[in-house]
Structures are given as structure tokens and as C-alpha cells.
Design goal:
Layout (H helix, E strand, L loop, with lengths): L14 H20 L6 E4 L2 H11 L4 E4 L17 H6 E6 L4 H13 L4 E4 L12 E3 L2 E3 L11 H18 L4 H26 L6 E4 L5 H6 L3 E4 L9 H14 L3 E5 L5 H9 L3 E5 L6 H16 L1
Parallel strand pairs: 1-2, 1-3, 3-4, 7-8, 7-9, 9-10
Antiparallel strand pairs: 5-6
Helix pairs in contact: 2-5, 2-6, 5-6, 6-10
């Protein structure tokens, strides 16, 4: 335990204040001593990132996920209890363009000014939404942040993760690169699997409540039609348009993420005489989740 200097006031009328001052200093010193036995903390935004950090590092570090399972990356608000791991973090690996990150970046960085930040979406061919008209003026479309749902884009994110980790821990570069090569093989295998499964599907259009499969659809030549637009609940007009589209394309399934309310999706399903399939893009196991999503898409598209 490091040396601790305790300043004691001579004013005997304030014993409780003196006691708490001493207790605070001792606890702070003990906490400092304990840090030497703890793993370094790497903070990430969403759970799938933890999978990639774990694969590359071999589990050498504690990975702190800011957005818990079941929460929306667009709407989640950080809770005070999460700051303790942020304060201990050596780095924050940001996806970039996620709504939560845009809202909380300044506060998170202020909690730990020494924490290095990396943007993992650098180099990705971003998909930008179409302009929307509101009250006789146009709003620019936002960047779609769901790049991890495409093997092509996740390869870039994985490589950017590797570069960040090597910069932080150069002594572990050999291990990181060996693990990355194994991860790269798995990503390529997932890409081949998806291509083979979807190659002969007849209907290339599908419905989804939240547009989480935009990059997936682009890579594999599919058409995603989303009920939600710009993060907002669908208008009656848009719901009517989606129902009409589904009937014309003979679509009988609507996909929805597990963290979303089913009400609007149920309305669509009833109107098209179809059913709902839940998907989980925010699952930890990226490989298993991508294959399960592909299986569900094939059943819907056939």
C-alpha cells in the first residue's frame, strides 16, 4: 500500500468531519493499491464489439460495454453506476455514428480525459438516409450505423480494432495479429455461408421494423423496407405504404429486433396475413447471430 499523508485538524468540535476525511483518504489509497491487480479496462459501445475485442486479445482485458443487452443504441442513457468502469478505462473503441455515442461522447470523455478514443468505422462506405420533408423544409438523412451487420464492413471494423489495440499494447502485437488472422478466416466463412444460402432465393425484398440490415442488404443484393424512419414511429401514411408494398411483393414476414415493442409489427403482420420473426443484431456472438439471421431471412424470402 502506498504511503498516505493524513492531515488532521486540531479543532476538536468537528470530529465527524475529520473522521470522514481520514476514511476517504484511506479508501482512496486502498483503491489505488488494488488497481495493480486488476485487468486493464477497454470500453466499447455495443456488445458485438466485445466479441471482436475478446477474439483479438484472447480475453486479456476486461471489456466494458456501455449499452446493455435489451437497450437501444439510439435511445439509451448512461447511468451513474457505469462511470466507475469508464474512469478506469484505458480506451473507448467507438463504432462511430451510433446515436448514443453522439449524445454522450462529451460526458464520457469528461469522466476520463486521459482515455484514448478510436473511431472504428473509418474507411467504411457509409450509407446515408434520404432527405425527409418536414413542415415545408428538408431534413438531411443521417448515417446508418449498423455496419457490423455486413461481413464486408465488419472486416474493416475488426482491422481498425486490431490497429487500436496494437497502438495501446505494442508488446502484444504478435498475439493480437495471430488471433486476428483466425478471426478474419471466420468472417470470410460467414460471408461465404450467407452468399450460398441466399443465392437462389426468389423474393429479394423483406420487411423490417428498424432498419438494422441496411448494410447486409446492400452486400447481398436484397431490398430492405423499414417501418421505422429516421428513428421515429411510422406515420399512418407510411404504414399504409408498407402494407401495400408487402402485398404486391407477396411478403409474409416482418423482422423486428428483440429490444423493440411488437405493437406496430403486429399490426403489419395481421394486415399482410403474415408473422413476426425476432432478430438480435446486438447479440454477443457475431458469427452465430449472422448465421441465424441468414437462416431466418431465407425462410422469409422463400
Amino acid at each position: 500500500m502506498p504511503n498516505v499523508v493524513i492531515l488532521v485538524q486540531s479543532n476538536e468540535k468537528r470530529p465527524m468531519k475529520k473522521y470522514f476525511s481520514i476514511l476517504f483518504i484511506v479508501l482512496l489509497a486502498c483503491q489505488t493499491a488494488q488497481k495493480t491487480d486488476q485487468k486493464d479496462v477497454i470500453t466499447v459501445t455495443i456488445l458485438p464489439q466485445k466479441y471482436f475485442v475478446d477474439r483479438i486479445t484472447g480475453g486479456l482485458y476486461q471489456v466494458n460495454v456501455l449499452i446493455p443487452p435489451g437497450a437501444s443504441p439510439e435511445l439509451y442513457s448512461l447511468v451513474p453506476s457505469q462511470l466507475k468502469d469508464v474512469v478506469r478505462s484505458k480506451t473507448w473503441l467507438r463504432m462511430g455514428h451510433v446515436g448514443f455515442e453522439l449524445s454522450w461522447a462529451d460526458k464520457i470523455q469528461a469522466a476520463n480525459p486521459d482515455m484514448q478514443t478510436f473511431i472504428l468505422s473509418e474507411g467504411i462506405d457509409l450509407i446515408v438516409g434520404e432527405e425527409e420533408e418536414h413542415d415545408n423544409h428538408m431534413h438531411p438523412g443521417g448515417v446508418d450505423p449498423h455496419f457490423w451487420m455486413s461481413p464486408r464492413e465488419i472486416s474493416i471494423i475488426a482491422e481498425n480494432t486490431l490497429k487500436a489495440l496494437v497502438k495501446l499494447y505494442p508488446a502484444q502485437e504478435k498475439l493480437f495479429r495471430e488471433n486476428f488472422e483466425k478471426l478474419k478466416i471466420d468472417i470470410e466463412e460467414v460471408d461465404r455461408h450467407i452468399s450460398e444460402v441466399l443465392v437462389n432465393v426468389q423474393n429479394r425484398s423483406f420487411l423490417v421494423f428498424h432498419p438494422a440490415l441496411t448494410y447486409f442488404a446492400r452486400q447481398y443484393g436484397l431490398e430492405q423496407v423499414a417501418l421505422e424512419k429516421m428513428g421515429k414511429e411510422p406515420s399512418p401514411k407510411h404504414v399504409k405504404e408498407v402494407i401495400q408494398f408487402a402485398r404486391e411483393k407477396n411478403i409474409r414476414v416482418i423482422f423486428i429486433q428483440k429490444e423493440f415493442d411488437l405493437t406496430n409489427a403486429q399490426i403489419i403482420a395481421e394486415e399482410i396475413d403474415g408473422n413476426i420473426i425476432q432478430i438480435n443484431p446486438l447479440d454477443y456472438d457475431w458469427v452465430a447471430q449472422m448465421k441465424e439471421t441468414t437462416t431466418n431471412l431465407k425462410s422469409a424470402l422463400n
